[in-house]
Amino acid sequence: MPSVESTSAAEHRPSGRSRRVWSLAIRVFHWGLVACVVTSFLTMKVETDLFDFPQNVHARAGLIALGLLLFRWGWALIGDRHARIGSWLRSPAVTLTYARDLLKRRADIFVGHNPLGGWAVLAMLTSLTIQALTGLFVTDDIFFEAPLHTLVPGAVSDAALWIHHLNANLLLALIVLHLGALVAHRWLGERLVGAMFSGRKTLPQGARWAETDAETPHESEQGSEREPDQMKERSASAGKGVEPGRSALMVRAALLALFSTGCVLWLWGRL
Ligand code: HEM
Ligand code: HEM
Question: Model confidence over 169-213: pLDDT tens digits?
Fold first, then answer.
């Protein structure tokens, strides 16, 4: 661990050993996505008698994944603090410093995604979105036509299929990397998986929170709606903006969920 601690860094360091990190929205998104992606790969890559028409199951799992991703992109802009892209996508310089500290086993613990993880999440979300969107235009030329296949010229559909096949491999590599990173962090003493179930992250023995993760009212140990002004200021001064209230977040989540569900239902109706 770095031994020198400046006063300003200490001021921005979150307090408490256990911190709220993943909202219910993120946890539902994550495990729903895992179920859909596993089903998508199972139906296309594994010989099984489980499904009479694997393409139909595949397309439906893909459409639900698309709905979840639409929600997640919206939530990355207007969601809670740790969900917002501005809080987890850090500069290459910060990412490099974090990678060096990690190799030396002296990296601080980030409440949300760490800088390396942030880039990996961006890559996964982008690859998943490309996969789900290209799937909308493809056909297997035998049993199945995707919902938007007839709306585009054959060349576009062929290109979409080509990207769908190519990106499937990239996606698989990213997932393997994702699971490998979780194992590596566990080996380094940081348990990340539990937090994706419980929503709370616990500081390992002897570690400390990264200074940029200033505490916000929503993450305080009490988790109450009381919003001390100095916390709002700290959060704003860390460049993350003021955390919206709980009811504002619920309204935003409901609107995003409504929009994504509407898109999925419309596409589902065209299958
Ligand atoms: C199909 C397989 C998977 C996919 C596509 C996937 C995708 C993702 C994505 C997109 C995120 C970012 C979450 C967000 O900010 O919205 C994430 C984070 C995470 N995933 Fe997965 N995931 C998969 C499997 C798993 C599995 C099997 C586990 C647990 C054993 C897991 C544990 C986690 C954890 C702990 C995080 C948070 C990492 C952190 O603290 O930075 N994932 N995953
Ligand atoms: C995130 C969501 C998705 C994932 C992870 C996914 C994954 C895959 C994979 C791994 C393959 C096999 C590729 C190969 O063998 O090289 C495949 C093929 C296919 N996918 Fe998807 N897919 C998704 C979304 C969709 C959607 C939304 C549709 C249609 C509504 C769709 C329709 C198809 C079809 C028809 C094929 C077979 C193409 C052929 O016969 O060559 N997929 N997909």
Answer: 999 999 999 999 999 999 999 999 999 999 999 999 889 999 765
DSSP secondary structure of the chain: ------HHHHHHSPPSSEEE-S-HHHHHHHHHHHHHHHHHHHHHHS--SS-SSHHHHHHHHHHHHHHHHHHHHHHHHHS-GGGSHHHH---HHHHHHHHHHHHTT-PPBPSS--HHHHHHHHHHHHHHHHHHHHHTT-B-SSS-B-TTGGGS-HHHHHHHHHHHHHHHHHHHHHHHHHHHHHHHHHHTT---HHHHHHSEEEPPTT--B-TT----GGGSTT--S---HHHHHHHHHTTS-PPPPHHHHHHHHHHHHHHHHHHHHHHHHT-
Q: Output the CA 193–ligand 1 centroid distance in Å.
A: 8
Q: What is the pTM of this model?
A: 0.89
**176 CB under 6 A from ligand 1?**
no
Number of structural domains, the chain?
1
- Domain hosting residue 70, numbered range: 19-170+190-201+227-266
Pocket test for ligand 2, best of 30, 44, 124, 145 (most atoms within 8 A of CB): 44
- pLDDT-above-90 percentage for the chain: 75
Residue 271: inside a domain: no
Q: Is residue 139 part of a domain?
A: yes
Cβ–ligand 2 contact at 62 (below 6 Å): yes
For residue 254, how far is its CA from the centre of ligand 2 (angstroms)?
29
What's 160's domain CATH number?
1.20.950
Does residue 121 fall inside a structural domain? Answer: yes
Query: Does 115 fall in a domain?
Result: yes
